[in-house]
């Protein structure tokens, strides 16, 4: 009886070990697939970032949990403002989390970019970018984008570009300027797991975005006249009042 029990335990441990080995191999293979298949679409230096009409800027908190300014937020905003200033892109879709009134990533991004000199008519906020996947599905289906430049950190771009291209979009990545940040290794470890989960979202369980909504095509600035099509519509009536409230309201 004892030998039979030991035999079952041994088989169980061997099966468990085999499953763990298989999971590890799938984890490594998934990460390798995502990174290797997107490398040629990602530009590590600002001067190499490929011009396009619209850049999608991924949201993150502008403050860290310890109460300091988030260097990743600043890097994304600084790079995005430079893309506009250098006329590499003509519009920014700023997408982030806004699940509660107290936490609003797109509004914080809008303020920062406006203070950096980006005109209001070159900014569109997406308040339902609850995840990288949601942002890109909404960019395609709601904001009607087939092509875009993605702006975020180097460790985030492979997954973002992979999702965008899997959705049929012609996307490339522009690495947001950055320096070493405390605790960044945690984000990178989490990103390794997120890449594998993304494969499941795309190819296994067919994930749907948290909120989609009706189409809202982005109106691009008219290069010849220097104003946007939207600014010539009735939407321009309250824009000065809107900007004043948005910039002056507390963070």
TrEMBL record:
<keyword id="KW-0997">Cell inner membrane</keyword>
<protein>
    <submittedName>
        <fullName>SanA-like protein</fullName>
    </submittedName>
</protein>
<feature type="domain" description="DUF218">
    <location>
        <begin position="53"/>
        <end position="192"/>
    </location>
</feature>
<dbReference type="GO" id="GO:0005886">
    <property type="term" value="C:plasma membrane"/>
</dbReference>
<comment type="function">
    <text>Participates in the barrier function of the cell envelope.</text>
</comment>
<keyword id="KW-0812">Transmembrane</keyword>
<keyword id="KW-1003">Cell membrane</keyword>
<dbReference type="Pfam" id="PF02698">
    <property type="entry name" value="DUF218"/>
</dbReference>
<dbReference type="InterPro" id="IPR051599">
    <property type="entry name" value="Cell_Envelope_Assoc"/>
</dbReference>
<dbReference type="InterPro" id="IPR003848">
    <property type="entry name" value="DUF218"/>
</dbReference>
<keyword id="KW-0472">Membrane</keyword>
<keyword id="KW-1133">Transmembrane helix</keyword>
<feature type="transmembrane region" description="Helical">
    <location>
        <begin position="12"/>
        <end position="34"/>
    </location>
</feature>
């Amino acid at each position: 009886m004892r030998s039979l029990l030991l035999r079952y335990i041994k088989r169980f441990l061997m099966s468990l070990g085999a499953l763990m080995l298989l999971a590890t191999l799938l984890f490594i293979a998934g990460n390798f697939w995502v990174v290797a298949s997107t490398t040629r679409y990602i530009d590590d230096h600002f001067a190499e970032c490929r011009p396009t009409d619209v850049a999608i800027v991924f949201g993150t908190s502008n403050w860290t949990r310890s109460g300091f300014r988030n260097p990743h937020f600043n890097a994304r905003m600084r790079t995005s403002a430079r893309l506009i200033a250098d006329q590499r892109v003509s519009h920014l879709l700023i997408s982030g989390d806004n699940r509660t009134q107290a936490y609003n990533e797109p509004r914080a991004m809008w303020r920062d970019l406006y203070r950096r000199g980006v005109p209001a008519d070159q900014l569109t906020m997406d308040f339902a970018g609850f995840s990288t996947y949601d942002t890109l599905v909404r960019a395609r289906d709601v904001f009607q984008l087939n092509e875009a430049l993605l702006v975020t950190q180097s460790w985030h771009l492979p997954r973002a570009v992979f999702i965008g291209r899997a959705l049929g979009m012609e996307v490339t990545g522009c690495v947001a300027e950055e320096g070493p940040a405390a605790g960044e290794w945690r984000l990178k470890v989490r990103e390794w797991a997120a890449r594998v989960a993304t494969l499941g979202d795309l190819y296994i369980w067919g994930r749907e975005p948290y909120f989609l909504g009706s189409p809202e095509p982005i109106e691009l600035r008219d290069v010849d006249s220097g104003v946007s099509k939207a600014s010539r519509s009735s939407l321009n009536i309250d824009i000065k009042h809107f900007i004043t409230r948005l910039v002056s309201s507390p963070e």
